[in-house]
Amino acid sequence: MKPIRHVGIALSLLLLMIVIGTLGFAYLEELSLFDAFYMTIVTITTVGYGDITPQTFYGELFTMGLIISGVGVTLYVFVEVMGLVLEGQLSEALGIAKVKRGVAKMKNHKIICGGGRTGSVIVEEFRNEGLEFVVIEHDPEVVKELQRTDIPVVEGDATRDEILIEAGVERASGLVSTLPTDCSNILLGITAKDLNKNLELVARASSEEAAKRLYSIGVRKVVIVEKIGGRRLAKSLINPAIVDFLDFATIRGETSIETLKVEHGTKIANKKIKDLRIKEKIGATILAIIRDGKVISAVGPEDELRVGDTVVVIGEKKSVEKFEMLDSL
Q1: pLDDT of the residue at 254
Q2: What is the pLDDT averaged over residues 98-122?
């Protein structure tokens, strides 16, 4: 980004020279602003004079100074712009500007902090679900890789206020923190919550102690990646068929597992599962009910769905999508 910043500085200097030249000629030569502007342009571009020339001694001195400084600045701008074009950074700069405009229009989107190995998996999941999201990543090489695949990305430190604001944290609905250290994830959680108190946070942790700290600052869900990975490896050896099924169900996208919050006033509230006949109506099956933070996995036909429950459902993707419309059953 440094060459782009250099071009910005060069263009600012050129604009300053034009302003100084215009005001100087207008004052010393008693020209109109337009004629003074015209005279400034032909001076710093070394085109030469024709119809308008300096008429006073001080005007000539001013012109000589403007030629020396103005031509130098003009050449500086030319060299910097050519450097951008030759290095292919001009198109990159335009692409970054386009991404910034796109992010500025996002609302209720998700933010992925960290575009590395874990972040890339989340990116793929969000893409498959058709979610609107932006990635924050500080590694320039990872940023370039994300840009090559048309992923909206903000380059910088995700724990800094200005970077989170650039990613639209104040308008976002959720944030996933996959930074490499627990300290960074905790700091990010505090910063993000300070900017958006309604933001739903999910974070990774490397230990139970770190997970407790993350929960204490308002993170909704903490995932200890190593623990989940270890359990999955164990299950792959103990009962590989189940792991293969879950991979097939969730990765291939033919089967989906979704959740639905039972809200007050919906038709499924305070009704027994057998009375809803979900299997017959939409072809989905209730796997579990989450109530008061506890998971009820042995769900039977006599179990009742209460207001505030979260229902976990599995079925074909089209069937599960209908589950979100159970209010009309």
Answers
A1: 60
A2: 85
Instruction: Render 183-220 in DSSP notation, one character per residue.
Output: HHHHHHHHHHHHH-TT-EEEEEESSHHHHHHHHHTT-S
Structure-token pair, residue 187: 């700091």
The DSSP secondary structure of 265-321, one letter per residue, reads: T-TTTTEEHHHHTHHHHHS-EEEEEEETTEEE-S--TT-EE-TT-EEEEEEEHHHHH
The pLDDT confidence band at residue 244, using thresholds 50, 70 and 90, is confident
What domains sit in the chain, N to C, each tagged with a CATH number? 2-87 (1.10.287.70), 106-228 (3.40.50.720), 255-328 (3.30.70.1450)
Nearest Cα neighbor of 24 from 48, 58, 53, 55 is 58
Q: Which tens digits make up the pLDDT trace of 76-99?
A: 777 766 666 555 555 555 556 666
For residues 296 and 289, is the Cβ–Cβ distance under 8 A? yes
Enter the pTM of the model.
0.57
CA-based max dimension of the chain:
102
